[in-house]
Amino acid sequence: MAGTKEIKTHIESVRETRKITNAMYLIASTKLRRARMELDHTQPYFKALRREIKRIFRTANEVDSRYFFPTDVDTPLEGTYGCLVITADKGLAGAYNQNAIREAMRLLEQHPDVKLFVVGEYGRRFFSAHNIPIEHSFLYTAQNPTMARAREISALLLDGFDRGELKQIFVVYTDMENAMSFQARSARLLPFHRTYFAAPAGEKAVKEPFEFFPNTNEVLDSMMPSYVSGFIYSALIDSFCCEQSARMTAMDSANQNAEHLLGELSLEFNRVRQAAITQEITEVSAGARAQRQKKGS
Known about the structure:
This protein is of the alpha/beta class. Helix content is 60%, strand content 11%. Strand 4 (168-176) and strand 5 (182-190) form a beta hairpin. Helix 4 crosses helix 5 (216-296).
């Protein structure tokens, strides 16, 4: 059994660890709140952009663009796929990174001819350790994503798509369904299905004539890069929010475990100390009894 000194040292160690996990919890909550504010500030623009793309398809039925599946094709395209995998720079976030990696591996199993584009140190280390080639690794941190970084990623992916090197592009990210739950998923970024921009059932069609200059395809081609950049930016922000939420949950669990461990250690410390006191009292009593017996004899 450990002595009081060892138990006291263990208690101090747990308390120091609890300070660290509590600080990480507070930092994650601050980053999460800030990221949500940035996402709320940028979403209206891209929602409006999506509405305009919908309007194009509702007013011009014969739109032909390389960013969309042909009207007579609904099967997966053959060729090389591109996959943007968004992970964190570090762990201590529960199963956040593992779920994103698992989703990326599932896509690799379904279609082995995939070029990986990785954001986050965790993903880079995982694929390197498993000898899985990475087409391009974005060396900037996954923390605090910006629109400039989203445009850089979008430009690289669109360049491969426009040159025909990538037939389809997927984004593996973590989607925050609500404040308490999130899920890793893979979304096809390009090409789009026209039904993705179709008008909801019951919505009235636009009857007013629209004029597109110089033509419909040119307008659509100029809008899609901005929309793709917005999609990637939303995925980066969404993943960052999920990472901070997962880290908050993990640190909260660590704090609770520390409290439980401190309770057990305090109980054990009191038990060992009481046993030592009892032992000392027993030894003193035995010594006094021996002295009395010696004097009496």
